[in-house]
Write a structure and sequence with these properties.
The complex is a heterodimer of chains A (about 260) and B (about 150). Helices cover about 70% and strands about 5% of the residues of chain A. Chain A is built from 13 helices and three strands, in the order H-H-H-H-H-H-H-H-H-E-H-E-H-H-E-H. Chain A has a three-stranded antiparallel sheet with strand order 2-1-3. Chain A starts with a helix and ends in a 5-residue tail after the last helix. Chain B starts with 5 loop residues before the first helix and ends with a helix. Classes of the chains: A mainly alpha (about 260), B alpha+beta (about 150). At the A-B interface, helix 1, helix 2, helix 6, helix 7 and helix 9 of A face helix 2, helix 4 and strand 5 of B.
Amino acid sequence: MAIEDLKLQKRIAERELSIEIFLNDLQRIYSGSLRDVITRLDRESPSAIDAASVINDIESVLAANGFGAVYRSQMDIYRDELLYINESLAGVGVAGAAATIAGADIPLMQTLAIFENAKIAKTFEVLLGDVKAYLYRSYILGEQIDLSSTVESYGDAVFANLKTEFSTTMATFSRTVTAKKAEDAGLELFLYIGPSDDKTRPFCAAMLSRSPAIYTKAEISDMDNGQTGDVLSTGGGYNCRHQWSPLTLKAAKEMGYDG
Amino acid sequence: MASINVKKNFELTEVVEKITDKMANDLQTALLNLRTKIVFDASQGKGFEGNPLKSYSPSYKKMRVDAGYSANVNLTITGQMLRDVQLETPPRRDANGVTFRIFIANGSSIPPKGFGSKGVAVSSVEKAMRTMAQRPWFGLSEQAKKELLDILRR
């Protein structure tokens, strides 16, 4: 492995690049802030106008609890990594750069660029709008606001979706890279690889039911997983554990393919 | 902890007078096939030499089954580690010659609760190093070496 590869690997490994820690921290602060707001409504029993003011102030509560700081700190890390890699590219030159970063974090780098700041910001903007509307409506109607069900309805699902989105983005990138290499090599056959267990969705089970599970690129382009479009890149859809792996006709025949 | 002889199973060096474009293309194609074989065999519980991989421990097997995963060895929870087995393109050219490489890209995934390292995302490289210590699934088999050398010696 070239010296530059090692430097990049080491640098990136040194970072605690954990999306899960990041999302868990945000979720913890969000749930805590929601608790603070609901507790205040319960304790002070403000008028409708004052309740609106308390609820609208949720962003201040989030900020006071460190939401913005956590959010910015992680995004800063990702941005710094991308800047560093771009500097390496500029220093080495295009041809050399491609070789230098080939063994490094291209997948992570690209995924972080895709899993971007704007997407998370928009997700929270919508979430906060929804939870404010729910809190105000419930308060005005005199309904008891239960913290845990509020967090569950207006938080847990969102954070679970963000984690799913990250995992799916990473998986899609990996499949896309492999598909590109197959295209460059002129390979048209792909083997569907992955588990068959209780978690396997019907689409993937159907793909695996062919023995061997080898399909042409044309067959794959006609497939529809009902979720995420391009099946060669996205497999069975969200959280899909499977992949398409290219092989020559000769290798396919050795596996029993009679295409 | 098992030790891994890096050179023996991971590296093949051959000196040839010249690498023609056809040789390079044939090698890249052979390596794409090899990549598929390594990943498929691992997903079927086989090592890079075709031998069955060591079974999961009873407790881990139970944990997997309880969570809906297969009890059979397939080195898969999220699937990201096997997806991150990649072929380097283009092959690297420097003063030493031309290097063709299959490597494990440093993607990461968020495993479900109970399957990660303290519940955080784990890089594919780290996962590969851990799994290889007990179940050698990634490497260059004797058969693969022979096929690659045949291309170089044509």
